[in-house]
């Protein structure tokens, strides 16, 4: 498939609106109806998604495998994450720790995927900071991210969405993202990439 921002925008326009016309109404918009119908089809084949989890467990036994798929998003999301570790640059505060996850996303709207990283800093049990990483990923995330990318391509026949296309601004509303901040990434994957269960 030839990936272009114009082609992807033409696809996502069928599932996301540019106005708030249906906000607060019982009636669902045609875009939402199409989106929910597509999710219904995808959920009928969810076993294919669990195969990915099994293959990732076998390939990366030192990491935990989880899932962050939510049908409000336009993708299935898997997680590979490491145990919390003390933050080395803060030796005086023994309660400060950090954990990270590599997130693999397959869009339900187009045959594209992305892999990114999320890092959470904690003080005790409460998170105090979180960061999302795209390219380049921090060193500890790179090898797991490559494994995820290879598995997604092999199992689902999807193509990596180039970052410059993912960052294309679009005139649509995706959950909490509104123009001029909405991008193709939000429409094809998730409006809250930092929101993952760690």
Describe this structure in words.
The chain is of the alpha+beta class and 198 residues long. It has one domain (5-17, 29-87, 94-172). 32% of the residues lie in helices and 24% in strands. It is built from six helices and seven strands. Strands 1, 2, 3, 4, 5, 6 and 7 form a seven-stranded mixed sheet that branches.
Give a quick rundown of the structure.
This protein has helices at 5-12, 30-44, 46-59, 139-156, 163-166, 184-188; strands at 64-67, 75-81, 85-86, 96-107, 112-123, 126-133, 159-160. The chain contains six helices and seven strands, in the order αααββββββαβαα. The mean pLDDT is 93.
Q: Please describe the biggest sheet, giving its number of strands, its sense, and whether it closes into a barrel.
A: 7 strands, mixed
Q: Overall pLDDT, averaged?
A: 93
- Fraction in beta strands: 15-25%
Q: Report Rg.
A: 18 Å
List the helices and strands and how they pair.
Blueprint: H1 5-12, H2 30-44, H3 46-59, E1 64-67, E2 75-81, E3 85-86, E4 96-107, E5 112-123, E6 126-133, H4 139-156, E7 159-160, H5 163-166, H6 184-188
Parallel strand pairs: 5-7
Antiparallel strand pairs: 1-2, 2-4, 3-4, 4-5, 5-6
Task: Output the keywords.
198 residues; seven-stranded mixed β-sheet; 7 strands
